[in-house]
Amino acid sequence: MKEIKLKIEKKLEGKEIKFILKNVLLLSNRVITKLKMFSDGITLNGNKAFVTVRVKENDLLVLRMYDEPSKNIEPSDLPLDIIFENEDILIVNKPRNMPTHPSLNHYTDTLANAVMNHYRNKDFTFRVITRLDRNTSGLVLIAKNKIAAQQLSFQMENKQIKKEYYAICHGCPEEKQGFINAPIKRASYSGITRVIHPEGKESLTEYSVIKSDGNLSLLKLIPHTGRTHQLRVHLAYIGTPIYGDELYGSTAQDCNATLLHCRKLSFSNPVNNEEMTLCAPLPEDMIL
Q1: Cβ neighbours of residue 255 closer than 8 Å, sequence gap 6 or more
Q2: Active site residues
Q3: Under a CB-based contact definition with an 8 Å cutoff, are residues 59 and 46 in contact?
Q4: What is the separation of C-alpha 261 from the centre of its chain, rounded to a whole number of angstroms?
Q5: How many CB atoms lie within 10 A of CB 253?
C-alpha cells in the first residue's frame, strides 16, 4: 500500500481535490479512478472525500493506493544487483543476456522474474520505466507503486529522465565529440531491424570519445531522442558499429553480446521532486 499525505497550502485554498490530484500530483484520470475505488483511497482530514470537494488551508489530504501482484510472472531466484531502493522506486544494474520482460523462450530468466522474487512476500506489480534490450546491460528504473509509475511516466513522456550510455565500438569516429542527427525508421524487410531513412523519425545522439587505441574505442553516448535501437543504428551509420552487435555490422567473433551499457540515470524523485542521479560501474570487459 502506498500512502501520500499533503498538507494544503494557502495558494491551494478553494481548489477542488481533483485539481490538486491532476495539477499538483500529476495523476492521470486512470489513477484517480483507481483511488476512488478504495474506501480510504482519498480522504480529507480523516474522512472519505469526493474529488469535487474544495479544500482549505491546513487541510490534510491523504491518498492510499493498494497494489496487486503481477500475473503470469513467476518469481525466479536470480541474482539482482540493486543500486538504489526506497518505498517508491527500485533501480537495478541489469546484466547482459537478460531480457527485461518474459517472452517466447524466456519465461523464468528475465529481470521481471528476479524482481518478483525479491518481493515474493508482498503484493507487487512489475512496472518498468526505463527498459533495456536483452543484450544491453546497465541501469533500469522500476516504479514500486502506481502513483510513482504515473509520475515517472510523465517524466519519460516529457524527456525529463536523462540517460547516459557507454559503448565499445569498432574503430573511432573522425570527430572526438559531436552529434549524430539521422532519422530512423523500421526496415521494410524486418520487424526488428531499424534503418536510417529520410522518412524516419527525428533521432539525435550526442557522443564523445573517452578512449581509443585505433581498433576499438570507448564512447559516452547521450540519446536526446528515444528511438528503438537508436544508439546501435547511429554508430553503425557513422562506420563504428558497437562491438558484438552483429545485427548492425559488428564482425567480432569473440563476443556473444553487444557491448553497450546504461551507466547513468538522472530524474526527479516521484514524491519530493528532488533531483536524483544514479550510476552503475562499467562491466570489466568494457574497460579499455
Answers
A1: 243, 244
A2: 133
A3: no
A4: 14
A5: 6
